[in-house]
Amino acid sequence: MENLKITNKEAISLIFVIIANTYVYITDRIIIHSCSSSSLLNTVYISIIALLFTFFITLLFKNFPGKNIVEISETLGGKVLKISLTIIYYIYFIFLSSVILKKVSDCLQIIYYPMTNIIYIILLFILAAGVICSFRNPGIFKTTAIASYLLGIAIVVIFLLNMKNYDLRNIFPLFGNGLTVTFGTGLSNLFAFSGLSHLYFLPPILQKPEDFKKISLISIAISGFLLITTIANILFIYSHSLINIELFPLYISVRYIEFGTFLQRLDSIFLSFCIIASIIYISISTILCSRIWKKCFQLSDSRPIVYPSLLLIFAFSMNIKEYPILNFLEDTLSKYLFFTIPVLISSIILILANVKFAITKKRSEYIE
Questions:
Q1: What CA–CA distances, in Å, run from 171 to 177, 240, 266?
Q2: DSSP secondary structure, 121-182, as one string
Q3: Residues contacting residue 306 through CB under 8 Å, at least 6 positions apart
Q4: pLDDT tens-place string over residues 48-80
Q5: DSSP letter at 357?
Q6: I need a labelling partner for 221 at 20 to 30 A (CA). Which of 5, 16, 56, 301 fits?
């Protein structure tokens, strides 16, 4: 997988699956809880902001075709900045993967295995991701494409089949807890698009790096549409009285669907799609971590980084023992890290790198 190249469709599927893991397990509940009846309006708002921010980022990448954020940072601040940013993103990806792993493992334990120690459930995910990462062929990205279709279709089908259970009055008052919450503090819900951080590492693995802008905008647009669908489904069923439950709301909403005796246990089918998506999330994040570590320190093979990374994810997940701690990591720390690393630090690096590029270009033109 050292010379990995993926198609446009696989890249779009990759980003969608990464983002979908965040809002299916974490941010849907947070958005409903923080914005109440204005959740749908807030979701449309942050989706537009995400598209605009993505467009801005792709413009900054224009002068550095085929390079990721770490490689661009080297042109700005040399090896010190390159190594620092590699370590920061490595820790960030490990942290997010651990939180997602803990969340889905807790859900599985509550639903199916209440008498099973959580360590065995987490270990199964780690082993599955380890097997996937050990393969040299890029089959994981073809699987990601299939999984993205299944998960995307499932979200839309859940929305449609639940329509008879909807109470459209739940969107009133339209501005929920006020304009400040909806459009001010509600901007923090942009964390639902935390998969934006993976966009920074996409150009080097694309078969057509020149399509980076198109891929990025399409993947964010699709993710935004399905996030809006997800929030609408939850809001129209639960209203804003949704409490802090350990199961993710979208899964519970599936249980409201009555589909006769022909097809039963739709919740199990949906959960299986979510499990596959979670394994893919952990695998892809681990692969990206190992690749950027390999490039930064010029290693001959990235695979030796894979297994220590999975062990770190396992260890961190196991140390999240209480639900309030997991809730804090999801609702507070994850947001701070997202706005600090992918949004603030990375944007500053890209802007300064473009300024340096422009100055260098003018100097070379002046000399000529």
A1: 12, 9, 27
A2: HHHHHHHHHHHHHH-SSTHHHHHHHHHHHHHHHHHHHHHHHTGGG--GGGG-STTTT-HIII
A3: 130, 133, 134, 286, 287, 290
A4: 999 999 999 999 999 999 999 999 999 998 999
A5: H
A6: 5
Token duo for residue 117: 């120690």
Q: Please name the residues in contact with 91: beta carbons below 8 A apart, sequence gap of 6 or more.
A: none
Q: What is the mean pLDDT of the chain?
A: 88
Residue with tokens 């309006």: 41
3-state helix, strand, coil in the chain (%, to 5): 80, 0, 20
SS3 for 206?
Answer: strand
pTM: 0.92
Of all helices (H) and strands (E), which one includes residue 335?
Answer: helix 334-338
Provide CB contacts within 8 A for 138, sequence distance 6+: 1, 4, 5, 6
Largest Cα span, the chain: 78
Q: Tokens 């950027």 identify what position?
A: 292
